[in-house]
Amino acid sequence: MPFIHSNTDIPTHFTPHILPFPPTESTIDFSESVQQFGTIISEAGIRLVLLYGTCLGIYRDTQLIEYDTDADFGVYLADFDALNALTPTLAKHGFYIHSRNVYSVTYRTPTKPIDIWVIIKRKNPFFRCLGYKWLVDHVNFKTNYFETPVPLSWGGQTYYIPHNVEAYLQELYGPKWRQPQRDRHAGPRSQLSQWLNAPFVDFDMPGQFSGVNSVGTYKPWCSFLLKKYAPHSKLCQLFNHPDPS
To answer: Residue-wise over 110-123: b if at least 16 C-beta within 10 A, else e?
Structure first.
């Protein structure tokens, strides 16, 4: 009998571990940790879908991006009961629940965190009328990336990537996704924030994934006014300023 019927049930059933001491330093490479995590999950019959920079690195470079800050996977809502049942096994291998919310569960490792994002098929008529098919990490997708994810082998284990993965990566990172670039984090930005910032800020990534302020640059006129009248304000430091040259 399933206990997790919707993403709002996730915080109730995934309880963060309270550890009496910080995790010890490990000589295990983060890539090895991710592969071990993936093996445990996949052997339980749960499909792990590569998302964000994890998808970008493994698809483009056949490896994790060295300077990425975490690993990101998607798991379908229907599999979250099975994922929760693996909590003791994952903890036994050093993967502890660090935090959770209605969109994700974060596991702590000795190196970097692993985020599991819930993949939800939109059934609400309102969202369907607007053309939205899937919800992943605050973002509604109109393109049907997740109906039939494509198997991909990495590290001797089968993972999955979004259908039409190159279109997915371009939607996240823009047309230059094939070129390795630092500080190009694809964080979600709400539609309201996109509307409010549009007159003042240019983003060099698609708006819905421009949630990290470092990818935004003030428009020249806005930069001029901020530097002239509020050079030391937090607002002036919020986004980048255009090259004066």
So the answer is: ebebbbbbbbbebe
